[in-house]
Amino acid sequence: MKYKKRKYFLAGRINLIQRSKIRELFEKAKKMDDVISLGIGEPDFDTPEVIKEAAKRAIDEGYTHYTPNAGIPEFREAIAEYYKTHYKVDVSPNDIIVTAGAYEATYLAFQTLLEQDDDVIIPDPAFVCYVEDAKIAEAGIIRIPLREENEFQIDPDELVEAITKRTRMLVINYPNNPTGAVLKKKTVKAIADIAEDYNLYILSDEPYEHFLYEGAKHYPMIKYAPDNTILANSFSKTFAMTGWRLGFTIAPTQVIKDMIKLHAYVIGNVTSFIQIAGITALRDKRSWDALETMRQTYAERRKLVLHHLHKMPHITPFKPKGAFYIWAKIDPELDMTSEDFANWLLENAGVVVIPGTAFGKQGEGWVRISYATEKEKLIEAMERMNEALSKL
C-alpha cells in the first residue's frame, strides 16, 4: 500500500482558530504611506525608568536562572499586598501564578476548566482571544449581547437566560475592551451572586483597571465571588510594559494547583529578572506616579477625541468611562459594514480604526478608536476623518 505524501501534517484544531482582523488591517496599513493608526491597544508611553533600572539591576545581581513555576515568592507576595492595599481583598500568595501576560492567564483558565461539550458564556462584543481560546478547549460558545442602552454592561437577566446545564464559565472584561464601559457595583454583585447560585467560574480579565474617568470605579470580581473567580491581570497597560510579557492569575486554591501544572509545561516560568522588576513596579511610588501621569494624559486625549467625533458627520461615539478606546457607531444611512467603513477610512483618510466585527457579530455597525496615541497625531487623525466623512 502506498501512502499519499504530504509535506506538512497539521492538527485539525489549528484550523478552528481565526486570524485576528485587527492584524489583517494593520498589515494592509503597513503597505501604505502616511497612515495614522488609531487601532492598536498599546500605551505609547515608555516603561517608567524605575522599572527598567530594576530589571537591569536584577540581571547584574544574577537573576538569570529558573524560578519556581508559579513565580518568585516575593513577587507573588507583592501582588497579594497590592490587592490588600488597593481593594482590601485578602489573597494568599499561594493562589497566584505569574504568567506571560494576561494572554497566558486566560489561556490557562480555558484549558484548565473547560473540556469538550462544556459551555462558556462570552459577551459580544469582546476581546478577540476569548472565542479562540474556547475553540482550542473544544467548548461550546454562548454569546450574550452588550447593548448600548445598557451602557454595554452585562444584563444579569440575560445572563441567567443564557446559562445551560453545561455552562461552566463566564468571561467578563471590565473596564471593557472594545467599548470602554465600566461595570457598576450592583451589576458586579449580581454577576457574583449568579455565579455562586449556578456554580459557575468567572474569568475576569482586568488589565485596564486603573484607566478610569469621571469618577468611575473598578470593582474586582474576586472581592465579590472569591470562590468562583479566576482573575487575569497584566502589567502591560498599567505600567506600559506590553513587551515585557508580565501578568498574573489569581484563582481558588484547588484551581490554581492545576493551572500551575499546565503553566509549567507551557513556559516553565516567566523570565526571572522581569519578575524582580515587577516587584519594583508594585512597591515603588515612582511607578504609581508614572501611572497617574499616563491616566491624566489619557483623560485629556479622551476628551479631545470625543469633542472632535461629536462634530463629525456619520459617526456617533459612546462616551467611555474606562480603558483607552472609544466605541463609535457608524451612520446606518451610509449602508456600510464595519469592515467596509474601516477600509474606506484607511483608503480615504489614511486613518486606521478597527471594525467592530473583529470583536463579535454585535460589533456590526461600530468601530473601535484607540486614543493611546500622542495628541498631535490624534488631532491630525480627527481632522482627516472629518474631512473625508464630510464628503460622503
TrEMBL record:
Subunit annotation: Homodimer.
Domain of life the protein comes from: Archaea
Top-tier EC class: transferase
SUPFAM superfamilies, per database record: PLP-dependent transferases (SSF53383)
Native source species: Thermococcus pacificus
Keyword Transferase: yes
GO BP term, example: amino acid metabolic process
Gene3D superfamilies per record: Aspartate Aminotransferase, domain 1, Type I PLP-dependent aspartate aminotransferase-like (Major domain)
Enzyme Commission no: 2.6.1.-
Gene Ontology molecular function, alphabetical: pyridoxal phosphate binding; transaminase activity
Domain Aminotransferase class I/classII large, chain residue ranges per copy: 34-384
Cofactor(s) needed: pyridoxal 5'-phosphate
Keyword vocabulary terms for this entry: Aminotransferase, Pyridoxal phosphate, Transferase
Stretches assigned to coiled coil: none
Pfam family, one: Aminotran_1_2
Family statement drawn from the similarity comment of this UniProt entry: Belongs to the class-I pyridoxal-phosphate-dependent aminotransferase family.
Protein's name in the database: Aminotransferase
